[in-house]
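Collaborator request log, item 7. Partner lab (contact: R.S.) asked for a structural prediction of BsaWI restriction endonuclease type 2 domain-containing protein to inform their binding assays.
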Amino acid sequence: MSFMIQETAINEYNKLIVDKLGVLTKKPSKSKRASMRRETIFATFESLLNTFPNENPGQMWRIVEKAHVYSYLQSEGVDMDVFGLKYNIKREILEELFFDDELISSFESAKQSWKRSSGIAWENFFEGTFESEDDEIKVVNPRDLKKLLKGEHINNNEGYPAPLHFFDNEQKKYFESLLKKKDFDLFLLFYSTYHRKWRLFGLIQCKTSIRDRMKINASTSKDAMNKNLWSILLALDPDSYLRGQYYEMAKTDWHGVYFMEKEVSVDDNIVRAPIDELQSKILNHANQVLQIITDKPEVINSSWRPN
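Returned to partner:
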């Protein structure tokens, strides 16, 4: 089954890239090609979730990574037939192959491309999630938040350039500390029509594997909760990882922990659901936060949980 999923992922990824190239009238720029790959990553992932609904999403995300790297290496002119020899190859040839600077450089470029593109694919997932009718919500990455902290502006939907709002200098320093710790992958802003500024209200951790990161990130999350920020975790791990101490941490150290699963299951703040329903749940919880945070931000603390 794993081989079938991998073949499906590679074929789907390549088909999507070919389709995107087919509608272009000229050779894409480097930035355009990167944008196409970002779109293709999540489209391939969604396709695998629909085609293999009983398989673990985390495993499929790793298979999409392989499809991305495979496609990237092909586009860089690397002969992929070489890798078919790895099960029957002489040692001296294998050593020569993996000490080839040009080949190693291609692998490193492919892995860096995955890191950049997959991160933005998660941004795209959340941007599609937070299409609120009542409030303008924006998902930003650490790079964009850093710009805001330096005094730069981001346009709202009406094209108005708005800065980030701080209650005081202490809050600004705390936001800066979040970037230094690098525990959060994405940040949620909403546009305050009263202040005509963006307000940071949510912090997101996107993890393929929670097993290695939960202990490390739990204290940072709980600290954010106690500073009246909505802290959530999106994970692709199988359910078997959320046991014992991990289960207790999920209950106490995040406002919400969300898993992509075939069936809907809600255990207080732990939500398992297919991707569309998961997005709907997260948006519903975000709206609950926004209904409270404008007038009574102190309510969003480590004890608060969404309904």
